[in-house]
Amino acid sequence: MMEYKGYIANVEFDDGARIFHGDVLNLRDVITFEADTVDDLLQAFHDSVDDYLDFCAERGEDPERPFSGKFIVRLGTELHKKIYIKAKLEKKSLNSWVSDALEAVLSRDLPKITP
N or C: which end of the chain has fewer CB within 10 A? Predict the structure, then answer.
């Protein structure tokens, strides 16, 4: 994975075509790029994000931002109750407890993101 200006891209290599191709993960809009060397791939990613931002500016639209910091999670009632009780016992808000729990999981499982 790669990161540029808050946009995160996933990259794959197509052995048959002998080319790298990638797409930005954290948008509903579609941003893709490709290249045949790693250096060119990084440049293509940056160019694609910059082109997207320029396109939005030309149209007078705000670009879609990668993350707002909010998301809705639907839980079963029993799990919701258990999390709520656990958070209260640790003297944390529900949001704080869930955020801490997710950080703990991701700190050991998230792949490294390169600039």
Answer: C
Q: What are the sequence ranges of the domains in the chain?
A: 2-59, 77-109
What is the value of pTM for the model shown? 0.64
58-112 pLDDT tens trace: 999 999 887 777 788 899 999 999 999 999 999 999 999 999 999 888 888 666 6
15: left (phi over 0), alpha (psi -120 to 50) or beta: alpha
Residue with tokens 């707002």: 68
Do 30 and 21 contact (CB within 8 A), yes or no? no
